[in-house]
Structures are given as structure tokens and as C-alpha cells.
Amino acid sequence: MDSSPFPPLYKHIKHKHTQNNIFQNPKTQTHTHTHSFKPTNMSTSTTTTTTPSTTLLIQCCYVLFVLVAVVVGAADFTSEMNLTWGGDRAKITQNGGLLQLSLDRASGSGFQSKQQYLFGKIDMQIKLVPGDSAGTVTAYYLSSENWGSHDEIDFEFLGNVSGQPYILHTNVYTRGKGSREQQFYLWFDPRLAFHTYSLLWNPQQILFSVDGTPIRVFRNAEGLGVPYPKSQPMRLYSSLWCADDWATRGGLVKTDWTHAPFTASYRAYRADACVYTNGRSSCSSSKATWWNQALDSNALKKLKWVQQNYMIYNYCNDAKRFPGGFPPECALKI
Ligand SMILES: *[C@@H]1O[C@H](CO)[C@@H](O)[C@H](O)[C@H]1NC(C)=O
Predict the structure, then answer these.
(1) Number of domains within the chain
(2) For ligand 1, atom 13, which residue shows the shortest CA distance?
(3) Residue 77 domain-assigned (yes or no)
């Protein structure tokens, strides 16, 4: 493949792990600035006003309406996303309703959200590169900007030759430390149709879901000394690039450029979230529904079903990799 599908401004990070680690995981990110963020100051002003006064009620409704319009009704990619990499390989069509990234021999492409979020529920429908997508990686993730001590929540879709399954690779970084990979096959072919990939991030847990089925939970384990992402706002990023040195069957299968350009499609973006601007966070009115959301027994059942039938790698089961003992959060039950 071409030496670098990464834009020159982006950092190309190769995570260095132990010899056992199969995840040399290059990432592209715009971590060119270093910010320090003030401690969070969650604003809940929109949910507290109740007086009999009609004026106040109207004002309140207006504020709610604006917040809901800004935060929740967010299917328009033109207003929500910046196309950051790959020139016209990244494009928005259908009046802001469809975003597509493509990859050819010369370059991949990417986008990022204009807003930063501090907690939220983020949904996106994605249709992955169809047919022979071997060697391609579609990354879809939240990340803060404070590189070196950053937080990050990752979905990465590793392509495959036609008829062979994608791998959904996940990871969580807190204060710059990752190495928390879990990998899955999906119970459907993600090339054939749009499916919803969701991240629910609240103070207790990070929940990864696919079409509403939870596949992974990362619990707040501060009690065990594990940092939890709770003060650095994160932006949503996605990029499509060639990683045929590691992505498909560990790098054995290379990208077949006669099938280029490779294209991934996105629609129905919804950020039901707390938007962070100027050191302040303001939350959607529907915050209440996800802020305290935990796994109920039905969700737990589904999560176990996925983990038993579709999980192909879990760092918490990889004893060879952690000879000195598993990371502390592995002690928590799913
Ligand atoms: C690709 O297909 C092979 C053969 O079925 C499988 O072993 C591998 O896990 C699949 N996915 C990737 C991303 O390599």
C-alpha cells in the first residue's frame, strides 16, 4: 500500500505493546492542539424551572425547544460535521442526510463533529465498505484532544474479503492509557445495510451497542484506581483508511486496489448529549433518560448472549499479555 494514507498534519500513532499484542493500531487524529479543560460544571438549568407564571413557562419551553433542536434533532451533517481529511473523498449529500467517506490508493478520508460532548448518547447509522473491503479500517470514535492524557472510546471496523466477516474492534482509553481491546464478529453482514452503532457515556459506565443490543460495557472503576473519562470533553471522529499491515487476518490479506474506491456511508446522526462550549456543558432535555441508565436484566441478558457467541477477543482473558496480573477493571463483572 501507499506509504501513508494519513494526512501530514495528523499524528500517526502506533501503540506499542508487548510482543503478544496483535493490535498495532494506527490511528489518525487531529491532536495538534493541547488544551487543558476546566473541571466540569454541568448545567441543568433547563430542567429546573417550574412556576405558575405563563411567561416563565413559555421561556422555559423556548429554551427547551432550542436545546432539543440543537442537540437532538441532529441529522444534518452539514451543520454537525467538519470534513477534515481526504478532500472530496469525504462528502455530504442528500441535503445533509448522507455522509460518505472513501479510500483510494492516494488517500483515505475523515470527518469530525463540530461540537464537543461531555457525556451523552451518540447514535449513528453506518453502512460499511461493501464487497471486498480487506485491509480497510473504518474508525468511529469519541476522543478528547489532550493528547498524551486523552480519553477515547473506539469502534473500529476491520474489513475483509467478500463473504468473510468484518471484525468489530473496540477499545477504551482513559488518561492516555488504552490496551483494553475487545473484538467481535457481528450477527449480520454490516456491508449490506445501515445499522445503528451507539455509545452511551454517563458517569457510571460506557455502553457500546449495535442496533440497540449492548455488546460491551466499561464501568466506572475509579474505586479500583482506574481513571474514568468524566472531565475531558470529546469530539466524534470517523475515518476510513488502509491498514493492511494489520487489519485483515492480522495483515495476511492485503487491500486489493482494483476494487477501489472503497466507500463507507453514514446517516441519522443523533447526539443526545451534553454539549461543551467555553468551559461549560449544557445538556439535552432528555438527559434524564440516559444519565442514570444502567443495564437492566434484559440488556444484561443480551450482552451475555453477544459475549458468549460473538466475542472473539477480550483483553481481560488474555493472561499471557498481562503476566503481572490483569488490569484492575477486569475484576468487575460485566
Ligand atoms: C476475515 O475472514 C477470516 C476467515 O474467515 C477470519 O479469520 C477473520 O477473522 C476475518 N476478519 C478479519 C478482519 O480478519
Answers:
(1) 1
(2) 248
(3) yes
Segment 58-112, tens digit of pLDDT: 554 444 444 444 444 546 999 999 999 999 999 999 999 999 999 999 999 999 9
Q: How far is the CA of 291 from the centre of ligand 1 (A)?
A: 37
Residue 156 falls in the annotated catalytic set: yes
Question: What is the reported pLDDT for 179?
Answer: 95
- CATH number of the domain at 188, please: 2.60.120.200
The structure's pTM equals 0.81
Kindly state whether residue 131 falls inside one of the protein's structural domains. yes
Query: Confidence class of residue 57 from pLDDT cuts 50, 70 and 90?
Result: low
CA 254 distance to own-chain centroid: 25
What does the alpha-carbon distance between residue 258 and residue 173 come to, in Å, rounded to a whole number?
36
Asked if the model's pLDDT at residue 16 lies above 80, the reply is no
3 within a domain of the structure (yes/no): no
Mean pLDDT score, 300-329: 97
Ligand 1 mutation target, pool 155, 167, 245, most atoms within 8 A of CB: 167
Residue 18 lies in a domain: no
**Residue 154 amino acid letter:** D
Locate 300 and state its grid cell: 444484561
Phi, then psi, of 84 in degrees rounded to 5 = -110, -10
Q: Is the pLDDT of residue 133 over 80?
A: yes
- Domain range for 196: 50-331
State which ligand 1 atom lies nearest to the alpha carbon of 164. Answer: 2
Alpha helices in the chain (DSSP H): 54-71, 77-80, 287-291, 297-309
